[in-house]
Amino acid sequence: MQPLLLTIIVGIFIIGGIFIGSTTRNNDKFLDLSIGIALGVISMLVLLELFPEAYEHIAFQDKWRTHAFIGIVAAIGFLFTNILDKIIPHHHEETHKNKKTAETLHHMHLGHVGILASVAFILHNVIEGMTLYITANESIKAGYLLCVGIGLHNIPMGVVIAGTLRNKKQLFISTILLSVSAFVGGLVMYLINIENELAIGILIALTIGMLLYIVIMELLSKVIHSKNKHINLFGIATGVIIILISIILG
């Protein structure tokens, strides 16, 4: 049962990240900072973690076939998030004479981004829970090390969610789902014992497409139209550094 226990511990790291983000977010400058951190964290996560993992699980003899397959599945994930984007109530920011109205719409838009990010992160954590269970089941020592590595990655994810979700009910639900998602992945492996490399690779590629949509269509556009680009850029640099440190320590 130790492998399953490790997947629970990973969820605690996310709660820690959400707590950090929640205690420092009641500030307009932190809103711009959180957008930058989200952009840095998610971009580096896709480039340095998910793409290599996808190629590790999806390895056809023909490299071009592997590239094409991952690209197509990622595109499906991108399209799925676009559909999800249209389903979730969306509040576009417009020019308003009433400053409070504009600020309210700004917070609503961030909440929209937070919901999309939560969905992608939940899928990502389910996959990591599967990987952690398999690793710990083969070597508990390696499982401990992987648990620390995943946990360090989950802290900035929690900060991102807390920084974008302004609605307390949405944040509470996301916290619960995110904190148990890795355990769900581990439980699936425990009950069904799925070890199909291709299936896991497809899930990772779908996650890549979902996160790319959030980066390109949501976060990047916010940074481009931001009035505090220097704060956004500082946030991006911070997010990149956080992920790099977590990779080195993990």
Work out the radius of gyration: 18 Å
Instruction: State the end-to-end CA separation.
Output: 23 Å
Number of β-strand runs? 0
Largest sheet: none
The residue ranges in which pLDDT falls below 50 over 5 or more consecutive positions are 91-105
How many DSSP helices? 8
* Helix residue percentage: over 70%
Q: Beta-sheet strand percentage?
A: under 5%
Tell me, rounded to a whole number, the average pLDDT: 80
Order of helices and strands: HHHHHHHH
Give the helix/strand class.
Answer: mainly alpha
Query: Looking at the structure, what is the overall shape?
Result: globular
Describe, in plain words, how this protein is organized in 3D.
- The chain has 250 residues and is an all-alpha fold.
- The chain has one domain (2-249).
- Helices cover 86% and strands 0% of the residues.
- The chain has helices spanning 2-23, 28-57, 63-87, 99-138, 140-164, 168-192, 197-224, 229-249.
- Mean pLDDT is 80; it is low at 91-105.
Question: What would you say about this model in short?
Answer:
This protein is an all-alpha fold and 250 residues long.
Tags for this model:
single chain; 250 residues; mainly alpha; 8 helices; globular
